[in-house]
Amino acid sequence: MPQARGLSIQWGIPFISRRPLAGLIVALLVALAAVLSSQTQPASQASQAPALTLLARDGRRALPLSVTGDQEFVALDDLATAFQLAVREESLGAITVSYKGKTIVVQPAQALASVSGRLISLPAPLTRNGRRWLVPVEFISRALATVYDVKLDLRKPSRLLIVGDLRVPRIVVRYEALGPSGRLTIDATPRATSTIAQDNDRLSIRFDADALDAPGPLLPAPAGSALVTAVRVVDPATIAVDLAPRFAGFKASTQTLESTMRVVIDLAAQIETAPAPAAPPPGRAPELPALNQAPPPFRTLVIDPGHGGSEDDGATGTSGAKEKDLVLAIARRAKAAIEGRLGIRVLLTRDDDRHVAIDERTAMANNNKADLFISLHAGASPRPSAAGATIFAAAFDTDSPPAVSAGRVPAFNGAVREIELVPWELAQSRHLDQSTAFAELLQAQLQDRIPLAGRPIASAPLRVLESANMPAVLIELGYLTNGDQDKLLTGDAFANAFVQALADAVVKYRDTTAAGGAR
Amino acid sequence: MTQRSIAVATVLLAAVVLGLVLFVGLPGLRRRTPVNVGPPPAAAAQAPQGRKIKAHLFYIADDGAHLTSVERDIAYGESAADQAREIISAQIAPVPAPIVSPVPTGTTLRAVFIAEGGNAYVDLSREVTAAHSGGTVGELLTVYAIVDALTVNLPAVTAVQVLVDGKEVDTLAGHVDLRRPLTRNLAWVQ
Description:
The complex is a heterodimer.
Chain A (H helix, E strand, L loop, with lengths): L8 H10 L1 H20 L7 E10 L2 E10 L2 E5 H8 L2 E4 L5 E5 L2 E5 L5 E4 L2 E4 L5 E3 L2 E5 L1 H10 L4 E4 L4 E4 L6 E9 L2 E9 L4 E6 L2 E6 L20 E8 L2 E6 L3 E11 L2 E10 L30 E6 L17 H20 L2 E4 L9 H10 L4 E8 L9 E6 L10 E6 L5 E6 L10 H15 L5 E9 L2 H4 L5 E8 L3 H7 L2 H23 L5
Parallel strand pairs in A: 1-12, 21-22, 21-23, 23-28, 24-27
Antiparallel strand pairs in A: 1-2, 2-3, 3-10, 4-5, 5-6, 6-7, 7-8, 9-10, 11-12, 13-14, 14-20, 15-16, 16-18, 17-18, 19-20, 24-28, 25-26
Helix pairs in contact in A: 1-2, 5-10, 7-10
Chain B lengths: L1 H36 L3 H6 L5 E9 L6 E9 L4 H13 L16 E6 L4 E6 L2 H4 L5 H18 L5 E6 L2 E2 L13 E2 L7
Parallel strand pairs in B: 4-5
Antiparallel strand pairs in B: 1-2, 3-4, 5-6, 5-7
């Protein structure tokens, strides 16, 4: 146990009787400590919060939490029991927390901890609830983790505290209805491989992990027509997918996205036998080809309205128009027009005003095996003279060819499959010719309908295009910092002209690829 | 006897004076010398009347969508890193109208490093992102003004990575990939 800082109260009292002056000083210190202690806010407003689950090699247990205002606290004596800490109350109200010779000092009324002499900030000060001292739950990750000899990983959103090098991937599940079929996407971060097995009306996905970080319901209640009725954790490393009676079969694939391993399970539905020849659902194009037909060469277009969310407006126009709103409105209009006219699936990377990370935008196109990716933006320039649209293809600022390597992944029937591994950030490098071909088709369609920049096709190392594993372009529609352009871009006529040109370019591109020209 | 006493006293006095000169006076003189003779460090760093080099700096062209190159006198830097610092400081400095800078107002240079292999790292203050007006072309012009200012003027620099507040960033305004050093690109210069 390290030497405590300052004088302890037990030493001070006999001191008073022997040396009056020193005793007086100690008495004053004690009085000061009492005053400071009285200023410490008791956690009278504290209420119970859902406990933290402590995961360790030897099992799991609950660590009670309390909440005051928005801040969650944990009792020091609970931490002492869980982690074999020595907690000691010093004079002047300081609390010393010791572990194997290392010391953390916490002062009441100060949102600070001193860890081996280094100051660490805490979101709230030490507080007292009755006879117990409470510290903000962040004390665990910011202070205790620095002195503890085993890794402590606090995951507040999941209410998990992982002790040691356990593999506990965070699991995120999404379900997407694709007509009568469906697609289940399961992300495990950090990466964890998995095996899938079917048992009647249930799929079991077992992860190579010690536990799963899967807070709350894994999947909000799917719609009534969904092929999945529930997704739940059934044992520490397995999730179960309960299947609807219409389920007929599935096909699974895996993808690696930086630190995430993604499992995509395509679910097929049984073909329903109608009592009479049924008319196709009104207003919907048939989504699945007949078996004796070649699959259509162009099925999915992903449109990416750039920017979004409260912290990323993109460019702002002279009239106050925001790039994020302009491109979203045009993307929605394009989706409706192209789906209605061409009968292909058009997905938007965002359909409202929210932040979407750049990699998520590209991942959506890759995971949906899009045939074309189009990112929509509007421009800005310090000079108001800038005008006209520019179509960008990606450029890779390197002389070395993209590193492509072979990899082996387990197939779901236990076999091993050879796959080609392309670095995520270089995926577009294999599609540059097709991207440029589409850019030229689009330029030809746009040139008589909207103003184009002096050099309307350009290439640049653009982040959102580099990881797209299909032909991809970014279109800068014009410059919002030019008063005339601002007025033009935000008008209906421009949106109609652009969407019409885009749809025409997609048709021409589809026809070209169907003839084997651009692919 | 008296004369001997006087002689002894004289020798002693001389020894004391010599000692004072040797141990007190000379070291003091030596300490003062560089202060009086050498230029103050701040003056050396600024070198307002010192050597100059000609360098190409890049500003927004009249069309607002390209850069234009302007030749300027830049303070001479002893090392490649010193010279890079002078060039970037000049590139990001406010300029009088009608010249328009591609670098947002308020941006300051935090540091420049040149690594082996010719990669330079330019660490700018957060204003380069926070005050950026956005746009793909606008961001390209900011990035390539910095990249080209070093790669055009310093043969030792082959590629440049822009850092912000000492950290790597994905982009400045959501478009241009800054995760790797970028090489010279004059396609955006008229």
